[in-house]
Amino acid sequence: MRCTKAIIYTENLKNNISEIKKNLKPGVKLCCAVKANGYGNDAVNSARTAETMGAAYLAIATVSEGIELRKAGIGTDLLLLSPCCPEEFSDLLENSITPLVFDQEVISALNITASRLKKKNCPVFLAVDTGMGRIGCYPEEAAELAKKIAETENLELKGMITHFAVSDGISAENKAFTAKQFESFMTAIENVRREGIDPGIRTCAASAAGIAMPEYQLDMIRPGIILYGYYADEVTKEYLESKGIKLNLKPVMQFETEVAAIRRFSPGQSVSYGRTWKADKETDIAVLPVGYADGLLRRNSPGLKVTINGKAYPIVGRICMDQCMADIGKDNPDVKRWDKAIIFGPKEKGSIFDADDIAKMTGTISYEIMTSVSSRVKRIIQK
Ligand SMILES: *Cc1c(COP(=O)(O)O)cnc(C)c1O
Q: What is the pTM assigned to this prediction?
């Protein structure tokens, strides 16, 4: 097996789900986001674990992600968070995936597909855009659309969903915006009820708001990033700590490789494309068989460091597609050929850097660091 791999610590995933459950108000359901291959952490393993631990829903982004889970024997309700195209409607319904709808055109088209497939009571969630500026109907259209759903022969309104734009912020302005979003969502729900229609499962909060603002949990929260061991961002973490809420989150993924060769370089000798780095003294360079095609971002050279036997070593020269090089210093007794080199992982397992550290260095978020680990990197599931 290739030494460049991602270890998935299922025990940490279980730990994180338990931590979330401790912060759920009684009766609140969990919809665990396993989209994008479980944020890179293996969708099937994440889904199975969440299912075993009582998730009511699993959230996906594409129909093919849903099909992968169904083929793996996942029976839990699947909520499709992103729009899909008409070509996918029959796969969607055949695989019992619950879509978000927010306009007459898709409601009608889905109903026709359902009728052709002889599917009755196909569940849909009505998405309301209260300020995220992505998908959804405007709050004032919700009642009318709920009526349209109720009038179809084959669709059934199973829930109502909205998504916060700044739930990860604690500034007065952001808090006020989130409160306004929540209020318009509640009004939309009220209007649906006034038509005599049951709004079903009401859900508005993802990881950040779900934990930081329990008053927004409603019937179901939709955590994603915290399942995999990270806060949405630093601000959320500080906010939670200021409120005395501490989640003992543990990163699930460890992205690692091995020292494939150690080569002596003399002063002036350069490393990699563009000759951006030259040895200023005699030193040893460790060659690592991992590159940007595996998810090491090229813009992290220079800057990136890897952990080898508990110590950090800088990547020098440009990161290549399939390889990169670390300066380990001359005759370093701590680094031997075939030793493990960790790009990021849980600190408790020996990595100096986690995905948040890499994200900070890159100017992005842990979500992007984990989903960048490409499909070429085999996921090794640890129980
Ligand atoms: C991805 C997503 C989530 C999960 O968000 P996290 O910030 O990872 O918790 C929840 N709801 C929707 C609509 C999403 O797109």
A: 0.96
Rounded to 5 degrees, what angle do the CA atoms 26, 30, 35 make? Answer: 165
CA–CA gap between residue 195 and residue 26 (Å, rounded): 28
Residues that are catalytic: 35, 273
Say whether pLDDT at 168 is over 70.
no
Name the closest-CA residue to atom 6, ligand 1: 224
Query: Regarding beta strands 57-60 and 29-33, do their DSSP bridges make them parallel or antiparallel, or are they unpaired?
Result: parallel
Phi first, then psi: give them for residue 73, nearest 5 degrees. Answer: 90, 15
CA of residue 319 to ligand 1 center, whole Å: 31
Span from the CA of 325 to the centroid of ligand 1 (angstroms): 36
Helix/strand/coil for 15: helix
Name the pLDDT band for 242 (thresholds 50, 70, 90).
confident
Among 96-105, 205-214, 322-331, 332-341, the least confident range: 205-214
| Neighbour-count burial of 241, counting CB atoms closer than 10 A to its CB (0-12 exposed, 13-18 middle, 19+ buried) | exposed
Cα(79) to centroid(ligand 1), Å: 11
Query: How far is it, in rounded angstroms, from Cα 260 to Cα 323?
Result: 10
SS3 29: strand
Closest ligand 1 atom to 223 CA: 9
**Contact indicator for 255, 373 with CB cutoff of 8 Å:** yes
